[in-house]
Amino acid sequence: MKAIHAWFNTQIANWAMVLKKYEIAAEYWMRTAELRSGSKATQCLTVAATCMSELNRGAEAEALLRKALDITPDYSAAWFNLGFLTQKRGQHDRALECFDQAIRFHEKMDRAHYGRALSLIALNRPEEAKAALERTIDLQPMSPYGYYQLATLHHKLGDEKACIKLVKRLHKFEPQLAVQLQRETGVEAGVQDPFARYRK
Fold this sequence. Notes:
Elements: H1 2-18, H2 22-35, H3 38-54, H4 58-71, H5 76-88, H6 92-105, H7 110-122, H8 126-139, H9 144-156, H10 160-171, H11 175-185
Helix pairs in contact: 1-2, 2-3, 3-4, 3-5, 4-5, 5-6, 5-7, 6-7, 7-8, 8-9, 9-10, 9-11, 10-11
């Protein structure tokens, strides 16, 4: 009977999320978590926390993520979400700890490396941020904002050659963003917006 109730709650929660009814979705994810145990309960609590975050109810989102990690301490998605939540508050030291934990349990989570890089930039630790962004791109070669942040960082550090190289690489799959980056940094990478003529 519990399995049927859990399935039913999950259907409601999923549809509520599709319709962006996050308060309803959070309630039904929490109900589902009560009917499940272990990693399945953790997953439900983590999604419920995402719903709370969408409602700008950060304290409740954090409480749900802490509860999820009490059940499954090595659940990398919960650590990442907690890092993202604290990063949004400007608590970059705490966010960094959470991203480090996410990477510890899932080293190939590219978004955790990216989140880590953003906090390192905010903490004025550019060399570490550069390494984190390089790892992001290594794991996700089509990460437009990984390239964007890394090129911007190289520009700030005075390495125009590396910046130009990254702008050109970005242009291969995100030409408009590459043109924007070229304009913002002022480098001469020679890239053009292929869609510019259609907007005239």
